[in-house]
């Protein structure tokens, strides 16, 4: 079905063809104008250097292809009355998407000062990549966008996330051939094995092969059509090819390809929804081959540009200083015949808008790209239903994530009809003790099943694929289109999506400043199978550094919680699932953990974010504490309480305060983070001049960085993970990193004035215990009985 090798298929009338071509030329004209012009938008006078921006920024190469796709999506949306969304993978195509939004009117509705006339066109041009204006990518500021695209690789997973549980939605996804070389994109082709044709919408990938990246050819564009077909069919798609450089032929072929693809999608959905077809369908994919920089300058300074890598960004770079470049730019702009496209006032002529849909059907106005407009409150049940009983601290143990799993199962059940909650994770739901959700929803799966398989479900809303990138992309697309979710992951391997979460935080930060963007449900991470209980998997599975990564990001958008037991995990999870426009990182263990707080106490403690556990310390209020034992995280909390108990036994006259931190941002100054403490609060909690021995879940220097401005920072001593790990016993992990209870008692003795001599014998006992531990585990393979069988004895 190639336009350059086959007669154009029937379908378009000459009038429809003329309208499509007019719209496409108008979009191309507006794209070029945004890159170059700051005045004279309609070329009502000869082009002069002062009409051109002093700094030329933007990307032309992909824009004509994106304009073609947008033009033809308009036609089928209007003709078929579709609810549609488009994910623009080539983020460098910002000029194209802005141009089309302006043409259809959604841009002016969003930004009334950018009117659809000559003056508005001038502002549209000048603001692009200009100080105080808009970015060059398909950014959050762009109406109709859910995908920034500045970092490549995530468009297709975002598109599938948008389609899940939106059965009436068609999500087109333009994939650039440079983006197609990334690992995340390559894996996301497998998303079609998880798309339910009954309850989900459809994704129409459009692989745009224009041949080049910034400076090199692209791999897929150099494959023969036959070899590329084999690849795409191997991914489970049915390819439809559109190839050419003659506009009329390409328009006709593209229209036929769009109609063919949408007919196939409709047939697949009808077979599944009405006839009960259960086999995994082969969904269509359009392969669009057009020249890079199509319709732009063929040559510049004697070098080929169109259909080469030189068309990637700004083909004519010296327009202000080189008269020949200026003449070429004017010739290029006039080649689109703007007088045919815009009236004397600068408004698009009726022929340009003939195939543009109306109202919310327009791609720039679809509510599916402004998900907060569609968002409903999540039906969260009362936490008391799941709370573990705590008559006294440390008298029982539970697996915190297993307790949370019961709550998530009920949320999944409560959303069974409305289908707006999903749990995603890389093959770890059961490993992370969340398998209770399977009673409410199985695991999404469209491939064949075998008798040994468990919990697979063609209509399931638990998403598991061994690709953290794909999980993240699915969930981001799901949230951005108005739904809720949770990403459960091993702590060490969530780093795989470091860069993706960067982009999502940036998106949230920008959208908070856009009043027309309604708040969306937060991106919630549950990080478990964490560093201190990866003793069986070893060093490769031990890395708590995602918290360091996140805490660097925009304070208004990131939150980090380290609940120390099951009830605090329930409280934190409830808060995170109710929140909007945040990235919430919750770090919690899946192994048996002591229950410290009742549900009511947990709610109060989590709301406070950090507080004194007076039942754990020995201060009586008659004097200041001699030392503060602080902790953040479940294992650090246990070690601090064990240390406090040892001090109570061996140094009974010492006044000890125990402080637990759930919300790590509480350590920051109030001026640096919305959750931060004032100096007055901080000094009241930690004191200004007493030693603070802080056992922290992750890398200890993070705590120092958060607290470095505090008055008492010189007295702060932090123990945490020091990148010492192996396959060993649980307690040996904390000993190896000097965060064990005996080491903490030694730190107290070393840092409280006067104790070094007075408590020398106690310190020696602690050191001896560490040596006994070393010998014991090497002989017996398990921890010392006094450690393995330890429990909180309170004041006894």
TrEMBL record:
Alphabetized UniProt keyword annotations: Lyase, Thiamine pyrophosphate
Cofactor(s) needed for function: thiamine diphosphate
EC number: 4.1.2.-
Superkingdom of the organism of origin: Bacteria
Limits of the Xylulose 5-phosphate/Fructose 6-phosphate phosphoketolase C-terminal domain: 590-792
Pfam families found in the cross-reference section: XFP, XFP_C, XFP_N
Keyword presence, Lyase: yes
UniProt xrefs under InterPro entries: Phosphoketolase (IPR023962), THDP-binding (IPR029061), Transketo_C/PFOR_II (IPR009014), Xul5P/Fru6P_PKetolase (IPR005593), Xul5P/Fru6P_PKetolase_C (IPR018969), Xul5P/Fru6P_PKetolase_CS (IPR019790), Xul5P/Fru6P_PKetolase_N (IPR018970), Xul5P/Fru6P_PKetolase_ThDP_BS (IPR019789)
Enzyme class label: lyase
Domain Xylulose 5-phosphate/Fructose 6-phosphate phosphoketolase N-terminal, residue spans: 12-373
NCBIfam families: PRK05261.1-2, PRK05261.1-4, PRK05261.1-6
Family affiliation: Belongs to the XFP family.
Protein name per Swiss-Prot or TrEMBL: Probable phosphoketolase
Organism: Streptomyces thinghirensis
């Amino acid at each position: 079905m190639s336009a350059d090798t086959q007669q154009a298929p029937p379908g378009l009338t000459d009038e429809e063809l003329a309208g499509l071509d007019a719209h496409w030329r108008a979009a191309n004209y507006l794209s070029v104008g945004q890159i170059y012009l700051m005045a004279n938008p309609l070329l009502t006078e000869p082009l002069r250097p002062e009409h051109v921006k002093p700094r030329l920024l933007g990307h032309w190469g992909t824009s004509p292809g994106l304009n073609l796709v947008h033009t033809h999506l308009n036609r089928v949306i209007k003709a078929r009355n579709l609810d549609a969304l488009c994910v623009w993978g080539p983020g460098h195509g910002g000029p194209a998407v802005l141009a089309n939004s302006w043409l259809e009117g959604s841009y002016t509705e969003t930004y009334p000062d950018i009117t659809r006339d000559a003056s508005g066109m001038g502002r549209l041009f000048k603001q692009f990549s200009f100080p105080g204006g808009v970015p060059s990518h398909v950014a959050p500021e762009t109406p109709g966008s859910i995908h920034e695209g500045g970092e490549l690789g995530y468009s297709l997973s975002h598109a599938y996330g948008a389609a899940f549980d939106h059965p009436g939605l068609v999500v087109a996804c333009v994939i650039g051939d440079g983006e197609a070389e990334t690992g995340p994109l390559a894996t996301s082709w497998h998303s079609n094995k998880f798309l339910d044709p009954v309850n989900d919408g459809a994704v129409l990938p459009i692989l745009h092969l224009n041949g080049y990246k910034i400076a090199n050819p692209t791999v897929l564009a150099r494959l023969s059509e036959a070899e590329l077909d084999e690849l795409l069919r191997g991914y489970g798609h049915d390819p439809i090819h559109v190839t050419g450089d003659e506009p009329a032929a390409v328009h006709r072929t593209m229209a036929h390809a769009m109609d063919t693809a949408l007919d196939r999608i409709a047939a697949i959905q009808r077979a599944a929804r009405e006839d009960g077809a259960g086999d995994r369908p082969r969904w269509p994919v359009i392969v669009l081959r057009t020249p890079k920089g199509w319709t732009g300058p063929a040559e510049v300074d004697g070098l080929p540009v169109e259909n080469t890598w030189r068309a990637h960004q700004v083909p004519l770079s010296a327009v202000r200083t080189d008269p020949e470049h200026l003449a070429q730019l004017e010739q290029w702009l006039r080649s689109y015949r703007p007088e045919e496209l815009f009236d004397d006032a600068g408004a698009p002529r009726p022929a340009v808008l003939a195939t543009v849909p109306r109202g919310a059907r327009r791609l720039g106005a679809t509510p599916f790209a402004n998900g907060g407009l569609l968002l409903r409150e999540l039906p969260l049940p009362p936490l008391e239903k799941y709370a573990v009983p705590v008559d006294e601290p440390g008298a029982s143990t539970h697996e915190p994530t297993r307790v949370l799993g019961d709550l998530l199962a009920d949320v999944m059940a409560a959303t069974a009809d409305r289908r707006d909650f999903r749990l995603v994770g890389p093959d770890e739901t059961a490993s992370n003790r969340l398998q209770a959700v399977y009673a409410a929803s199985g695991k999404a799966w469209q491939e064949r099943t075998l008798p040994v398989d468990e919990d697979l479900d063609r209509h399931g809303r638990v998403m598991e694929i061994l690709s953290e990138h794909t999980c993240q992309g699915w969930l981001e697309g799901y949230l951005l289109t108005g739904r809720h979710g949770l990403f459960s992951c091993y702590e060490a391997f969530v780093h795989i999506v470091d860069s993706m979460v960067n982009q999502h935080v940036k998106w949230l930060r920008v959208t908070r400043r856009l009043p027309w963007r309604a708040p969306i449900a937060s991106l919630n991470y549950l990080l478990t199978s964490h560093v201190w209980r990866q003793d069986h998997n070893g060093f490769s599975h031990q890395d708590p550094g995602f918290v360091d990564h996140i805490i660097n990001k925009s304070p208004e958008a990131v939150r980090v919680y380290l609940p120390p037991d099951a009830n605090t995990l329930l409280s934190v999870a409830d808060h995170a699932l109710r929140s909007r426009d945040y990235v919430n990182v919750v770090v919690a263990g899946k192994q048996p953990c002591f229950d410290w707080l009742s549900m009511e106490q947990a709610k109060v403690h989590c709301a406070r974010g950090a507080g004194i556990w007076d039942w754990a310390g020995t201060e009586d209020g008659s004097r200041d504490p001699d030392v503060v034992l602080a902790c953040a995280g479940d294992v650090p909390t246990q070690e601090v309480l064990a240390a406090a108990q040892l001090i109570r036994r061996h140094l009974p006259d010492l006044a000890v305060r125990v402080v637990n931190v759930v919300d790590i941002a509480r350590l920051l100054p109030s001026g640096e983070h919305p959750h931060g403490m004032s100096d007055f609060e901080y000094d009241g909690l930690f004191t200004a001049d007493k030693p603070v021995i802080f056992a922290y879940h992750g890398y200890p220097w993070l705590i120092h960085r958060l607290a470095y401005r505090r008055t008492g920072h010189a007295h702060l001593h932090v123990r945490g993970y020091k990148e010492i790990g192996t396959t060993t016993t649980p307690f040996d992990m904390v000993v190896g990193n000097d965060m064990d209870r005996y080491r903490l008692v030694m730190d107290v003795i070393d840092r409280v004035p006067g104790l070094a001599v007075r408590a020398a014998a106690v310190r020696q006992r602690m050191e001896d215990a560490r040596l006994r531990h070393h010998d014991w585990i090497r002989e017996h393979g398990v921890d010392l009985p006094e450690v393995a069988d330890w429990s909180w004895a309170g004041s006894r």
